[in-house]
Amino acid sequence: MKKAFQPCTVRKLTLPGHSGIYLLLLLFPPLLSACASVSGGVLDPQGPEAQRVAYLSWLMFGVAAVVFTVVTVLLLLTAVRTRRQRSVEYSPESDHRALNGVIVGGVVIPAVVLLIIMGLSIAVQQISAAPASGDLTVEIVGHQWWWEVNYPDYGVTTANEIHIPAGRPVLIKLTSADVIHSFWAPQLHSKLDLIPGQTNSFVLQADNAGVYRGQCAEFCGLQHAHMVFLVVADKTDDFNTWLEQQRQSAPEPDEGSFEQEGQQAFLGSACVYCHTIKGTNASGTLGPDLTHVASRQTIGAGILPNGHGYLAGWIMNSQTVKPGNEMPPMDLDAEQLQAILAYLDTLK
Ligand code: CUA
To answer: Which fold, 258-344?
Structure first.
């Protein structure tokens, strides 16, 4: 590190290795935003609220660019002028002019610009915070470090994956079971906190079917960065099919099958104290509901894809994957593990 980094000097600008690229990125924020739109960022809005946030972002960027340009030009003009004038003469008039310049350029203009931007920001937030109603209500509870997702009108509970019908307003109600989290799918809406003992709500709408990545946006402990969720916007028919499927209890495995052996191993283990599988005795609520775990795309709130091998590793010792999470390492032999995996596979 030390070797690569040379301090800047006035005469010769020396910067670390890839400084040229950093400088370029600093000078051209749109290059950074281009990256953001590839992964689905604020500047690639896919819903009405995100659209307003994107307009505001571009407006702020425009204002900042104008201010930056004006200040740079003034700075250069001053530099050129003072270089030409070997000596500067001061008089009461020049002092007065300078003072006026400072008051107008340093106080009045910034105050007006900032007030306008503040007003617009408040307006966008007010729209977001307006009393909300939607075609569907989804209650989301933040946990360290995963998302509990409830559809109270349908008795459906899932985790880390929020299915909504595309093109329709959905009322999202947010609260937390432990610390403050923040709900944020950048392409769809602005951030909103999940606060213990309080419910915050807003209307979420995705204009088009698709999968939108979301992330906890408030530092909430060791695995804050691994608190990912997916908003899956389905076409209405697909959404109804999904909802109907999620309402079902878990299918009962065939008598004497390997899957049934897995079910018994699951129900005989500590799993039941933390997880619910509807239709069985497992009714814990500390961890994600597993009734339809096989229908989800990820495990561990986005940390791993939902596949046999990943799930095996997660079950045996999720602490190696996501240290500090609430799930303890499990003491299972190979047969039990394989049977449980086969059973979980049936929970579509
Ligand atoms: Cu939850 Cu950060």
So the answer is: Immunoglobulin-like (2.60.40)
